[in-house]
Amino acid sequence: MTKPTIILTYARSLMALTVGQSLRPIAGKLIGVDSVEWTVLGFSKLCDDIRRVPDSNTEPEAYVEALIALSREFLDEGPVLLMPVFEDAPLLSLHRDRFPEGVTIAATSMASIDQVHPKDRLARSVEKWGVPAPATDVVEAPCTGATGAFRNTPPLIIKPAEGVGGRGVLLVQTEAGLEHELATRSGTQLLQAMVEGEDYCVTAMADGKTAFAISAYRNLEQYPPHNGAGALRETVEATPFKAAMERLAEASGWTGTLQADFRWSGDAADTPMLIEINARLWAGITHSVHSGVDYPLLLARQALGEPMPEPGQPQIGYRSKLPFLWLAGLTGSSLDEADYFAQIEDSWNTLARSDLTVQHRIARLWRDMTDFETLKEDISAALERGKRAEGAEADISVEEAGTAALGSLFILSHLLRHGTLPAEVKNDPD
After folding, report:
1. What tens digit of pLDDT does each residue of 109-149 get?
2. Pick from 67, 75, 29, 31: which is nearest to 49 by CA?
3. What SUPFAM superfamilies does this protein map onto (predicted)?
4. Which residues contact 373 (CB under 8 A, 6 or more apart)?
């Protein structure tokens, strides 16, 4: 049997690196694509080629056309599997019929995605499906003077209907705070009732009728704190979420990977509450794979119509940390300030106008980012919090993937091109 050419998007991410590690053995060729120059996958030893394509967010039509053209290049060699790694999954699912015969998109159908994405659609769907979820108001922003008309009152969670990595998610404590958020935000916003407990990321495979290979983890640390991406994660028992995941798969007709966020007290007498479903691979995919369930391989085999291997059992209690975010999170309030990122951007733009070489600019920027005066007040707290990560495995190591750790240079690549930090590391609603 001819091995497929596998194209992975969002090559900048550790997610793509993990997917590449899982799929390299079954790929005839492995191609990474992204809109930026320096990528994690590009610095690894996994890929046969890295291609630059338009940005899926700012140039969606050009992005799709570029991937169609790229797919055609390899069809003479056999089947092509295109696996969207991050938030381009809905876009590629929408346009799957435009790809030539022999190209498979590893994403669920748009009919399924439309029921849960953007997040305001999920809020409406769960009521119909009978899946326990917090009461949610759907609001169009900006708006003023309307808070009295909502079911939910502060304290509550406000979040944009579209967003990833916790960007734009905020706990609002007062009516005045809610008025401010609604007046200054734009687009569809969700006002979600508070639910006691912790956040749990629950993952599974689905076949259109039910969910299987179910696993769950919780974030012990996040960056930015309280509402950012997980920096220190722990695998937990998934049984409390099993019925809800099976119902979600059945009601939506979902196929492929299924990821849902729940909030739960941890008490068996309490019901986990569904917070959201992400129609894409999740940021903690590396943790899930290392914990014992190889979702990328299961997804690829399912999409290609091939027999799937045994899914494996998640290792309960397994912990992992994402070094960059974990170390940043340890510094506490120093890096939890919005103006910290603005200072980095200002520093870079100042350096960009200087006569220094790029190498010297990068060195100077790193010095500014790690200024001891900025961080020293939090060193003691960082040491205490660091004890939580003892025994946790790193999500990435140079030994595993050559120089892939240099993919953090994606941040510098973005600065070089745009003069701003990428949205993935900022807690912005846009």
Report:
1. 999 999 998 889 999 999 999 999 999 999 999 998 776 77
2. 31
3. Glutathione synthetase ATP-binding domain-like
4. none
pLDDT tens by residue, 353-405? 677 665 566 566 555 554 444 444 444 444 444 455 556 665 544 344 444 44
d(C-alpha 311, C-alpha 292), whole Å:
8
Strands 198-207 and 255-264: antiparallel
Q: For the domain covering 5-107, report its CATH number.
A: 3.40.50.720
Q: Closest by alpha carbon to 373, among 343, 415, 412?
A: 343
Q: What residues form DSSP beta bridges with 171?
A: 157
CATH of the domain spanning 198-322, picked from 3.30.470.20, 1.10.10.10, 1.20.120.1560, 3.40.190.10: 3.30.470.20
Based on its alpha-carbon atoms, the radius of gyration of the chain, rounded to whole angstroms, reads 22
**Residue of 284, 183, 175, 302 whose CA lies nearest to 236:** 284
Tell me, what amino acid is at 244?
Answer: A
If DSSP states are collapsed to H, E and C, what string results for the chain? CCCCEEEECCCCCHHHHHHHHHHHHHCCEEEEEECCCCCHHHHCCCCCEEEECCCCCCCHHHHHHHHHHHHHHHHHHCCEEEECCCCCHHHHHHCHHHCCCCEEECCCCHHHHCCCCCHHHHHHHHHHHCCCCCCEEEEEECCCCCHHHCCCCCCEEEEECCCCCCCCCEEECCHHHHHHHHHHCCEEEEEEECCCCEEEEEEEEEECCCEEEEEEEEEEEEECCCCCEEEEEEEECCHHHHHHHHHHHHHHCCEEEEEEEEEECCCCCCCCEEEEEECCCCCCHHHHHHHCCCHHHHHHHHHCCCCCCCCCCCCCCCEEECHHHHHHHHCHHHHCCHHHHHHHHHHHHHHHCCCCCHHHHHHHHHHHHCCHHHHHHHHHHHHHHHHHHCCCEECCCHHHHCCHHHHHHHHHHHHHHHCCCCHHHCCCCC
Which CATH architecture best describes the domain 135-193? 2-Layer Sandwich (3.30)
Strand order in the sheet with 136-141: 136-141, 187-193, 156-160, 170-172
SS3 per residue for 143-164: CCCCHHHCCCCCCEEEEECCCC
Spans of the chain below 70 pLDDT: 147, 164-166, 221-231, 322-353, 356-430
